[in-house]
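We emphasize that the prediction below concerns an isolated chain of 155 residues; any contacts that depend on oligomerization or on bound cofactors are therefore not represented. The input was used exactly as deposited, without trimming of termini.
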Amino acid sequence: MSSRKPEAAPHLDLERFLPYRLSVLTNRVSNAIARDYNARFGLSVAEWRAMAVLGRFGSASATDICARTEMDKVTVSRAAKSLLSCKLVRSRTDPCDRRRTIYVLTAAGRKIHDRIVPVALSHETDLLDTLTPREGEQLSRLLDKLLRRTGANTG
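Result of the prediction step, given as a token string:
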């Protein structure tokens, strides 16, 4: 019989655990922005993210939007349905794959998109103003590095 004591299970300091801290930060930022987008434009964060993809790339399928935003299919589907009902996007069948729907901003959707972009950038600027320019650049590099690392681990 060994006289060694069993090792204690490792302790997890949740408040210092990187994934938890990133999640808390993301939730706080997203919730603040969501309140603003909803109050000013009547949009959810998911609806805005879908519009941002369409504003940048011109058109996209739900699968494309999922891939570019990391939102799940149900969230994107609900956002697309809502944007369609508000006439902020229109849809068409992909001529190369009749099972796929392609979304594009309407003129009204483009107008709202173009009004939201400065608001989104203002939120980003406000957050980054907490950092020095050097810290902001370093944060960007570190986030890129972590995103590359986590992207390599996904199927």
